[in-house]
Amino acid sequence: MEQNAKKVPGPSKGLLQSEDLYQYILETSVYPREPEFLKELRHVTASHPRAMMATSPDAGQLMALLLKLVNAKKTIEVGVFTGYSLLLTALTIPEDGKTRLIFIESEALPVLDQLLQNHENEGSFDFAFVDADKVNYWNYHERLMKLLKVGGIAVYDNTLWGGTVAMPDASVPEFMKPGKQFTIELNKLLAADPRIQISHASLGDGITICRRLY
């Protein structure tokens, strides 16, 4: 953020202004192109008590586009809820593509370190999606910068943390405060990382798209 930057008066060009507008996007551009398997999984997940953890369909649509743009064949996924993003990846990459899924968060760092021990894995992955424990996002990022090829994409989910990153602490529910701080620190680190080109998109709970430059 620019120092001493002034807020420009007028309507915001960023965040959606209403639920109706969001529904318009979903019903016009997202749902008609959503594969039937993903649609069924989304409907099943909607009844889950923690359904808000699921990848939003509009974020998923962008991920599918990114996978195609980089012609991804070898991917990593860290963390999974009911599997929307994993199924989306499987449906998008070629039949001979491979996804390395790390389901259990406590195993994620050791598995990534194990992958790095095999030097053939360095710079060999096309795409990574991370939706896991926020305290380790930066640790995942450091490892993914070695595993991704130059030009590869890493996508981090929940980088707006329910909007709390822009809220005063007094307005943030107690259980969300640790995640808020981890997310703010991550966003600062990603914004300052010269190894990547980034786009912080206000889709779902916020996704940050990182393209490895070197």
Automatic annotation (TrEMBL):
Gene3D superfamilies the record matches: Vaccinia Virus protein VP39
Entry's Gene Ontology molecular function annotations: O-methyltransferase activity; S-adenosylmethionine-dependent methyltransferase activity
Entry coiled-coil feature ranges: none
Transmembrane segments: none
InterPro entries: Cation-dep_OMT, SAM-dependent_MTases_sf, SAM_O-MeTrfase
Keywords annotated in UniProt: Methyltransferase, S-adenosyl-L-methionine, Transferase
A Gene Ontology BP annotation from the UniProt entry: methylation
Role, per record: Methylates caffeoyl-CoA to feruloyl-CoA and 5-hydroxyferuloyl-CoA to sinapoyl-CoA. Plays a role in the synthesis of feruloylated polysaccharides. Involved in the reinforcement of the plant cell wall. Also involved in the responding to wounding or pathogen challenge by the increased formation of cell wall-bound ferulic acid polymers.
Family under the similarity heading: Belongs to the class I-like SAM-binding methyltransferase superfamily. Cation-dependent O-methyltransferase family.
Protein name in UniProt: Caffeoyl-CoA O-methyltransferase
Organism encoding this protein: Fagus sylvatica
